[in-house]
Design brief:
- The chain has 236 residues and is α/β, with parallel strands linked by helices.
- It folds into 2 domains: 150 residues, 3-Layer(aba) Sandwich (Rossmann fold), CATH 3.40.50; 79 residues.
- 51% of the residues lie in helices and 11% in strands.
- The protein has 10 helices and 6 strands; from the N terminus they run βαααααβαβααβαββα.
- One of its GO terms (molecular function) is metal ion binding.
Length: 236
Amino acid sequence: MTAFIFDVDDTLYDQRQPFQQAFDATFDLPDVPLQQVYLLSRQLSDQVFHDTETGKLPIQAMWIYRIQGALAHYHHTISDQQALAFQTAYQAAQHRITLLNDVRQTLDFCQQQHATLGVITNGPDTHQRAKIAQLGLTNWIPNQQTFTSGGLHLAKPDPRIFQHVARQLHLNPHQTFYVGDSFENDVIGAKQAGWQSIWINRQQRPRLHHQAQPDFIVNAQQSLLQTVQTILQQKG
């Protein structure tokens, strides 16, 4: 049976929205290119993610590091207290996140087609499950089919997290499509586990030069629903 397993952040919802809401509420920096600051903060977060998972770097230190570093690139210095105030506002804004319409339609279609659905997401278990609950994902995906790096003590792109989920959900790797926005974590991780890959690239990020390449790409011109419909029609 064909399966679609989803990332959460910047895949199921637009993570820029809570970021912008928190940024506008915390800082008065109209000259800063917000899109670039957002993308840079994501990159900095990814760089130290493993250290937060192992406990080498406290999560509060990561929160401070990523927004301070992103703003420093544009010649703005903020204090640790300002960085934490931004994080507080950011987390509050995440309580208002909603599924993208394209994602909602895709989940409905997959459910109608009886495709297996699941989630693999990096991050603290409680934090990520709060987002999953806010998005209402249990309307399509049971809790026992959602997996977090914090809960498993394994994180993308380690292929073992994909292999663990494949065993738990009895997936055929060749018929399983991982849907995510991070080339390194989602595309490379899934391909190294023998899965198919759908790369969500709404932000027009450059591809990494790597032997692992996505099987499908969703960008501003191509919807996820169209991609999934194409896959299931081919399988049918």
